[in-house]
Design a protein that fits this description.
about 80 residues; mainly alpha; two-stranded antiparallel ribbon; 2 helices; 2 strands; about 70% helix; about 5% strand; elongated
């Protein structure tokens, strides 16, 4: 169980630093657009920030899914 916890913490810290570099690097971006949600729109955001942040949050969600699958397989054996 400790190994899974260490993997989650490492992944969150790693993705946080990538997100920090994304914020620092995107400051001079001029290409901005709105994201259409179901009920309203967001503010104008740089396209690179939208793509980068969705990749980072998908990476975090994927790591939780990956650990959940491994723990279920280990409990069956």
């Amino acid at each position: 169980m400790r190994i899974y916890f260490n993997k989650i913490i490492f992944n969150i810290i790693f993705n946080f630093f990538i997100f920090l570099f994304l914020i620092i690097g995107i400051q001079n971006s001029t290409n901005k657009t709105k994201v259409n949600l179901i009920f309203n729109e967001t503010i104008n955001l740089p396209v690179g920030f939208i793509i980068g942040s969705s990749f980072i949050f998908g990476s975090i969600a994927g790591s939780f899914l990956n650990i959940n699958i491994f723990s279920k397989n280990r409990s069956k054996n």
